Amino acid sequence: MVDTTKEPTTQLDALVIGGGVAGLWCLDALREAGFDAALLESRALGTGQSISAQGILHGGVKYSLTGLLDPASAAISRMPERWDRSLRGECRPDLRAVTVRTEACHLWRTQALRSIAGMVGAKLALAVRPQRLDRADRPPVLADCPGEVARLPEKVIETPTLMRALAALHPDRIWQGTVLEGDARDPERTRLRVEDAHGGTHALVARRVVLAAGGGTPGLLERLQLPEERTPMQRRPLHMAMIKGPPDLLPELNGHCADGGRTRVTITSSTSEDHQRVWQLGGELSEAGCDQTPEALIDAARSCLREVLPGFDPDDERLAWSTYRIDRAERRQGEARRPTGPYVGTSGSAIIAWPTKLVMAPWTAEQVVKAMGDLRPAERPTGSRNGWSSPPVARPPWEEATWH
To answer: Closest Cα to residue 304, out of 317, 322, 286, 321?
Structure first.
């Protein structure tokens, strides 16, 4: 057992470890349910997957381009309305401070036969369906596409503003620190020793510990003396290309080019601190790019954009390019397949949460609160809450990039 007798001990109903979107949403849900909860993050909030998310609040169309409504599509289809309620301030967390980039994105196809089949499949799959646009109603950047262009009623949000909005909800309950050791085998409580950002150590006792640390979860399981084999992790890497340029040269564009049952490229727009527009290029392009050098990926991205956006010149010398790598950390599936939905499970006094996608954060938080079981909030908190500093919000990848 971890010896917590040598240091003042803080007791909590729940400690969330991991300061991404899922962890912050879980913290708010636990606080709303009346639990004395706090969140621990060792780095900047959102570092890794969350701050790099493209911000599309998927309704499932992207995952049903084959026309098959799988469990992932069924679960995800309920999420946009849940997000809408928070974005309107009608329920917690109150996300009215989040910037909504657009109320709808676009779905378009190339001239290939497989791409035509993909568009048809998307229309058949879900209640949230693409709405075909007449040529006169297309945005200028898609005006020359030879195939069909549709409007997809899925919002796109600015992820950095989401992180800041979630962080502002409970600033006194978001602590920067690293778990040194612990023991979560006891189903009644987890004991931890934590080092704060200033090098001080703290003893924490939590009736439940929520592991929402993404790629850091396997290391936490080891430090908490829990068997990883019950909740193994897989990594699905991405190599993302980015373009940066003046808004009159790089137009606003958010959406997917569908090619058969795959998303050939997903393009989302953001605005950099120097008021330039930035495109992030995801989808199949970023998956195939994992085995490519940055130079090779940029060449592939240019080639891709020539095909999917006729009339757009990706070789304009006023455009700057960069790439970054990111891992999607998820609960392991057979043959490294995409998980069919979020996972929330228990081991000892730990609740392990894998949200899978940004849009599934509300569902994950709901399941975490349910996993608290018949535990009732403590009558009063004990131990000192002083001495903790709050972690900053991570900078988005386009602000950290080297541009060429």
So the answer is: 286
Q: What are phi and psi of 307, to 5 degrees?
A: -80, -40
Q: Which residues of 140-175 are buried (b: 16+ CB within 10 A; e: fewer)?
A: ebbeebebbbbbbebbbbbbbbbbbbbbebbeebbb
Helix (H, G, I), strand (E, B) or coil at 118: helix
Domains and CATH numbers, the chain: 9-49+163-232+334-399 (3.50.50.60), 106-157+235-328 (3.30.9)
- Residues with Cβ within 8 Å of 65's Cβ and at least 6 positions away in sequence, in order, are 118, 119, 121, 122, 125, 258, 260, 261, 262, 263
User: DSSP character for 392?
Assistant: P
Burial class (CB in 10 A: 0-12, 13-18, 19+), 284: middle
CA 114 – CA 111 distance, rounded (Å): 9
pLDDT in tens, 176-198: 999 999 999 999 999 999 999 99
Tell me how far apart the alpha carbons of residues 199 and 189 are, in angstroms, rounded to a whole number: 25
The residue length of the chain stands at 404
Cα radius of gyration rounded to whole Å, the chain:
22
Task: Quote the CA–CA distance of 243 and 16 in Å, as a whole number.
Answer: 36
**Helix 79-87 and helix 361-371, axial crossing angle in degrees, nearest 10:** 90
Copy the structure tokens of residue 196.
């704060």
Residue type, 74: A
Number of C-beta neighbours around residue 315 at 10 A: 8
Q: To 5 degrees, how large is the angle CA 95–CA 98–CA 99?
A: 150
**CB-based contacts of 162: which residues, under 8 Å, 6+ apart?**
21, 55, 95, 98
- 304: which residues sit within 8 A by CB, 6+ positions away? 264, 265, 281, 285
In contact, 2 and 195? CB cutoff 8 Å: no
pTM above 0.85, yes or no: yes
Q: Encoding tokens for residue 13?
A: 């109903």
pLDDT tens, residue by residue, 33-74: 999 999 999 999 999 999 999 999 988 776 666 554 455 556
